[in-house]
Specification:
heterodimer, A: mainly beta, Thiol Ester Dehydrase, Chain A, 6-stranded antiparallel sheet, 1 helix, B: alpha+beta, 16% helix, globular
């Protein structure tokens, strides 16, 4: 699965792992999550973070651990968000610290984990 | 109770329906299964992603909560993942044609917040385990 350009669009990418993101309307997942009430599944925001991390290191990554991921507030199609990513190379992959905020600095997601 | 009528227990619908079978034996635990079909939206190069298994676990918890609500004569409501902790993911992820078997138990339930521990296996090998908090 790739959800970049179907579920979300990267509007701009900045130094230091910062991405400005637009959540797109019309992805088929919203037919089922939930009928008549589109809300972005939390696990797809996790997939979005992983895809953006993969762009930073220019290779496909997958999660090996999720130490802590807090879904602080809902994400909906049409929203403009900011993703801040920090990656640290380890023996077997990357440690990742990430957060997603809205443009009022409201926290939506906070993640600590590892990618390989 | 073994039910194939999973849609009576959870509000999710295709293409993000990630539980095929649900079995609830006692008060505080349940088991579910997911058959990985070729049209699963969480496939990557034929393998299910960790995000897909986490959605399956979240829907396992949702089915448990929905089952208990139905028994209590209440309606099934929308639920959301509050957090994921202590999640360990196998290097080898399952492929199309395989079945994920998940066992889940309730760690605590206070008001609308349910904390669960879950383990997902394929062919008796653990592929993912985690703790998850859900808000209903």
């Amino acid at each position: 699965m790739q959800i970049k350009d179907t579920l979300y669009k990267i509007e701009s990418q900045h130094d230091g792992g910062r991405f400005d993101i637009l959540m797109l309307d019309g992805h088929p997942v919203y037919e089922g999550h939930f009928p008549g009430q589109p809300i972005t599944p939390g696990v797809l925001t996790l997939a979005m973070v992983r895809e953006c991390a993969s762009i930073l290191v220019e290779k496909p990554l997958s999660y090996s651990t999720i130490k802590n991921c807090r879904f602080v507030a809902m994400v909906k199609p049409g929203e403009h968000l900011r993703l801040n990513l920090e990656l640290f190379a380890t023996d077997c992959g990357y440690q990742i610290n990430a957060n997603i905020t809205d443009h009022d600095d409201g926290l939506r997601l906070q993640l600590e984990g590892e990618l390989v | 109770m073994l039910t194939s009528d999973i849609m009576s227990l959870i509000p999710q619908r295709p293409p993000i329906l990630m539980v095929n079978r649900f079995e609830c034996g006692d008060e505080e635990a349940c088991n579910t299964e997911l058959d990985i079909r070729g049209d699963n939206m969480f496939l990557s190069n034929g393998h299910l992603t960790a995000e897909g298994i986490l959605e399956h676990i979240a829907q396992t918890a949702a089915a448990y909560i929905g089952y208990r609500r139905k028994l209590a004569g209440e309606e099934v409501n929308l639920g959301f993942i509050g957090d994921i902790k202590k999640c360990v993911i196998s290097k080898t992820m399952p492929t199309v044609g395989q079945t994920v078997k998940t066992s889940m138990r309730v760690v605590s339930q206070v008001g609308g917040i349910t904390m669960i521990a879950a383990e997902s296996k394929v062919d008796n090998e653990t592929i993912l385990s985690c703790r998850m908090k859900l808000a209903n």
